[in-house]
Amino acid sequence: FATSGTADNLQVDNVHFVDLSSRGIEIHNNTTVTNMSVTNSLFQNTGTGIRLASSAVGDGIDIDQTTFDTNSLAFYQANDGSTGNVRDLQITNSTFRNSTDTAVFGEEIRDSAIDGNLFENNHRDFTLFKNYTGAGTDVENLQIINNIMTDSEQSSILIWSYGSGLAGAIDINGNTITSDVGVMTANWPKIDVRLDSSYTHAPVNINEN
Hints:
Radius of gyration: 16 Å
Distance between the termini: 37 Å
Shape: globular
Helix content: under 10%
Number of strands: 24
Structural class: mainly beta
Largest sheet: 10 strands, parallel
Strand content: over 45%
């Protein structure tokens, strides 16, 4: 847990978080982390793998070569109407399996990339739930690219923005998405984009998936 204040240059390398009741790593309220790195690690049956609480701020988080297996959420950036946000989140070369909610879930996120990962047998693979404005963080420059996404129960990628417009583009490109319709629990498209019609939005570019 990181609690209150600022934590710079936190490095988690080759650590296994297994069979925990609630979290693997919690960045607690009123805490800012900068240049955080998680590499070559395992989060298995931890409830939530990595969580940023509703007033926590992440400014530079790199997750690479890490496996998340049998969690509710693997990476969860919460806001819930508070001030929490994350920018420069880079998730690469990692594996997400058997998430019962969502593998990667963000509420206030910008300047970030989910690039070159393997998603298997999750309820959802990626969700953007932009429903709050208290953090003052516009969604922009978000890339979901070059991932392999297999057998999610609902949408592989859900972009949900209400109460504000997208300030900059979201790119959903080069992902390989396959699904056995027999595992789907509802009639959801694999890429689902929902934008509040009351606002003007930057484009969501969906190419070559």
